[in-house]
Specification:
Subcellular location: Cytoplasm
Largest sheet: 3 strands, antiparallel
Structural class: alpha+beta
Main location: cytoplasm
Pfam families: GrpE
CATH class of the largest domain: Mainly Beta
Helix content: 55-70%
Keywords: Chaperone, Cytoplasm, Stress response
Family: Belongs to the GrpE family.
Radius of gyration: 28 Å
Shape: elongated
CATH architecture of the largest domain: Roll
CATH topology of the largest domain: Nucleotide Exchange Factor Grpe, Chain A, domain 2
Length: 147
C-alpha cells in the first residue's frame, strides 16, 4: 500500500510539474502574441503612409514651380504642413541628410556620383527625402555623392 501511495504521489508531482510548465508556456505565448500584435498594428498603415509621402513629394515639386513664378500661396504651404504633421503624429520622421556628411548606405541611396570639391563618399545633394516609420526605414533618402 505504501508503494501505491508513493507511486500516486510521484505521478501527482509529475502531472503538477507538467501543468505548471504548460501554464508558463501559455503565458509566454500570450506575451509573444501581444508583442506581435503591437508590431502589426504599428506598421499596418505603412502602405497608406508610403502613398502620402508621394503626395508630399508632389507638393514639394508644385511649390518649387510656383516659387519660380513668384506665385506660391501661403495656403498651399499650410496644407503641406498639415499633411506632414498628421504623418509625424502617426510615427513618420524624416531621414536627416545634410550636405557634406558621410554617405550612409543604411539610410541613403546613392543615385549618382559627381565630381565635387567635397571629400569622397560625402553627400553633395539630397535629391529625394527619406523617411522612417516608427524607426523602420521605409524609403531611403536619395542623394548625390562626391567621387
Amino acid at each position: 500500500m505504501t508503494d501505491d501511495l508513493a507511486k500516486c504521489q510521484k505521478e501527482r508531482d509529475e502531472n503538477l510539474e507538467g501543468w505548471k510548465r504548460a501554464k508558463a508556456d501559455l503565458l509566454n505565448y500570450k506575451k509573444d502574441e501581444s508583442k506581435r500584435f503591437e508590431i502589426v498594428a504599428k506598421f499596418s498603415q505603412e502602405g497608406l503612409i508610403r502613398e502620402l509621402i508621394k503626395t508630399l513629394d508632389s507638393f514639394d515639386l508644385a511649390l518649387a514651380a510656383l516659387e519660380k513664378e513668384g506665385k506660391a500661396e501661403k495656403g498651399i504651404y499650410l496644407i503641406r504642413a498639415q499633411i506632414e504633421d498628421t504623418l509625424r503624429q502617426n510615427g513618420l520622421e524624416r531621414v536627416a541628410v545634410s550636405v557634406g556628411q558621410p554617405f550612409d548606405p543604411n539610410l541613403q541611396e546613392a543615385i549618382v556620383s559627381v565630381e565635387s570639391d567635397k571629400p569622397s563618399d560625402t553627400v553633395v545633394e539630397e535629391v529625394e527625402r527619406g523617411y522612417l516609420l516608427h524607426g523602420k526605414l521605409i524609403r531611403p533618402a536619395r542623394v548625390k555623392v562626391a567621387k
